[in-house]
Amino acid sequence: MTTERADPMAPRPYAVERARQETQDTFTLELYPVNGARAVPFAPGQFNMLYLFGVGEVPISISGDPAQPQTLVHTTRVVGTVTRTMRQLRVGDTLGVRGPFGNPWPVEEAFGSDLVIVAGGIGLAPLRPVLYRVLAQREKFGKVVLLYGTRSPEDILFRRELEQWRASFELDVHVTVDRAVGRWRGNVGVVTTLIPRAPFDPLSTLAVVCGPEVMMRFTALELLKRGVAREHIYLSMERNMKCGIGLCGHCQFGPTFVCKDGPVFRYDRIEAFFGKREL
Amino acid sequence: METLERILAEHSFFAHLELRHLQLLVGCASNVRFPAGQFICREGQEANQFYLIRQGKAAVEIMTPQRGPIAIQTLEEGDVLGWSWLIPPYHWHFDVRAVELTRAIALDAKCLRSKCEEDLKLGYELLKRFAHVMQERLQATRLQLLDVYGAPAKQARGRS
């Protein structure tokens, strides 16, 4: 994707327009460029490096609508010092942004066929831009199925949007949780158990998968079992990304760098080293 | 018209079963329905049936003293419910409750067990099919045990 950034290593200042707690340990920041700077377009699946001055920099996927790049939306989970501090940002606070980086989801490859979106946990965040893009041109796709698995009903991300999407009949939305207590009336079980009965034609389907690596591994196997071709399965990998442009080598994954060659990979291109404990 | 024989023959669990075996099974089968909230089976009770769910949803639950019932799995149309009837002492290991109106084919296990003893080929066929269901459930349970959506050890890119 063409961007206007002159130096990919120089952060641009953004300010917090809105901060929202999504679940107990996830939050969303909506950011806008300060000093009237122009927004940088992005594609679904790309990520930015977010820099908290004096604290550190972390790679975080973009979870907003690619048709509205003037508002940069990031949803993440509190897992370390930077994200813990990031959660405390308030409206008007500033941070640095580098990016967008990485390969996007090949949404257009699914034109004319079914699209299966499999998300696990906070893996729904990098896939939400796909859903926005699909809904903006819904007529170009066959069936569009979202299979979303998470830990418990309390951990469901973007709950209101999931309900809207389900009610709109534009998407087939299936949510499952690993365990449930109380009034939950939905599915219980791992997300892979949704695949055998999901309404799509495996011979004419593109699948995009994002979540913890072990979840993606079993999801890919289940999709293959259902009959989806290897070259029609895409996964978003995760490694320790630092520079974002394939120079530092921190995110090396086999012969590739996740920040530059990924994070979205075609399954058959990484299958040989996907799941290898040495990598 | 939908007959029990046709329903069983069309169910993936009984795919490619010999006709004579299918007819034996029909003799042990009946249509059942469970309104939402009704228990289909209770932990500790005798497991005298297994079910092929035709419609609706049922939750496999474990009762805990502090947290109440915890749902660990839901079963839907096309799923097989129950293998405790195969394994002595033939008692259910979980509660199963209809989450919504659930229709199923119940197979009388006492009747089936004796037929399996008499016809070992039928017994082996059923055991192979249940072993497949068990393997799938075991695999899913292992994934659940991994708690893959739990907090990771280090910083990650917008994911767990």
Name some characteristics of this structure.
heterodimer, A: 279 residues, 7-stranded mixed β-sheet, 6-stranded antiparallel β-sheet, 16 strands, 18% helix, B: 160 residues, 4-stranded antiparallel β-sheet, 8 strands, globular
Largest interface: A-B, 52 and 35 residues
State the total count of DSSP E strands of chain A.
16
For the biggest sheet of chain A, the summary is: 7 strands, mixed
Mean pLDDT score of chain B = 90
Q: What order do the strands of the largest sheet of chain A run in, or round the barrel if closed?
A: 11-9-8-7-12-13-16
- As residue ranges, the low-confidence spans of chain B are 154-160
Largest sheet of chain B, described in full? 4 strands, antiparallel
Q: What structural class results from the helix and strand content of chain B?
A: alpha+beta
CA radius of gyration of chain B is: 18 Å
Structure description:
The complex is a heterodimer of chains A (279) and B (160). Chain A has 279 residues and is α/β, with parallel strands linked by helices. Chain A has helices at 81-86, 124-136, 159-168, 213-226, 258-261, 267-270; strands spanning 12-23, 26-33, 47-52, 56-61, 72-77, 94-101, 114-120, 144-150, 172-177, 180-181, 187-188, 205-210, 233-236, 252-253, 256-257, 264-266. In chain A, the strands form three sheets. Chain A has a seven-stranded mixed β-sheet, with helices on both faces. In chain A, strands 4-3-6-1-2-5 form a six-stranded antiparallel β-sheet. In chain A, strands 14-15 form a two-stranded antiparallel ribbon. Chain B is α+β, with helices and mostly antiparallel strands and 160 residues long. Chain B is built from four helices and eight strands. In chain B, strand 4 (57-64) and strand 5 (68-76) form a beta hairpin. Chain B is globular and about 50 Å long. Mean pLDDT of chain B is 90; it is low at 154-160. The chains are: A alpha/beta (279), B alpha+beta (160). The A-B interface holds A 25, 47, 58-61, 63, 74-77, 79-80, 82-83, 120-123, 125-126, 149-151, 155, 176, 178-182, 184-190, 192-193, 197, 210-212, 214-215, 218, 236, 238, 240-241, 263 and B 57, 59-60, 67-74, 76-78, 99-100, 136, 139-140, 143-144, 146-152, 154-160. Strand 10 of chain A pairs antiparallel with strand 5 (68-76) of chain B, so a sheet runs across the interface.
